[in-house]
Each structure stands twice: as C-alpha cells, then as structure tokens.
Amino acid sequence: MTESTSAEPFDTPRSSATQDEWPLYEVFVRGKRGLNHVHVGSLHAADDDMAVRHARDVYTRRNEGVSIWVVRSDAITASSPDEKDPMFAPSGDKVYRHPTFYSIPDNVPHM
C-alpha cells in the first residue's frame, strides 16, 4: 500500500470545494507610515482565517504592512458611478453642516 502525497501546505484545510469555488476576498493593507488601509488586491480562500494567512503571504512578503483586512467580496455594498453627482455633491442648502454656526473651543487643535 502506497502513501499518497499532496502538494498542498500542511495547514490548508481540505475541502470538497475546489479553489475556484472558494469565495472571493478583497484585501486591504495598512502600511507602516500610513494611517489608512489601502486595497491591494483580491484572492480566493476557503474561510476567513485562510484569507488572512494567504493575504499575508501574497501582499506583505517584504514587510509592506502592519495590518491586514480581508472582506468577502459579496459582503461589500458600493455606490454606483451613476449616483456620483447626487451622492457626493456638496450640500449647499444644508448650512447647518458648515462649522460657522458652532463655537469651537480654543483648546481644540486643528479645526
């Protein structure tokens, strides 16, 4: 009886689903100097933990980041490019949104 070998890493969970059937994840990385997470790419993974591990291996090989977010693509809701003007146009008729109607204390920096 011969022992079967696999090319998969030992920590990859075995699943009846093939890699093409795994859900798609979007990957965001926060750089060492930056404050914001930036979208760096996408990958398929069997579960959330695998997505984080694969994102680390693929997108931070050279110590590019200090934090990784992975989000299933089917959980993202985005605005449509057709809604650009009504969604992001300034609200000139909503003057209460402008800071001129509020007194700002002197000890509040950078306002």
UniProtKB/TrEMBL annotation:
Domain of life of the native organism: Bacteria
Gene that produces this protein: paaB
Protein name, as recorded: 1,2-phenylacetyl-CoA epoxidase subunit B
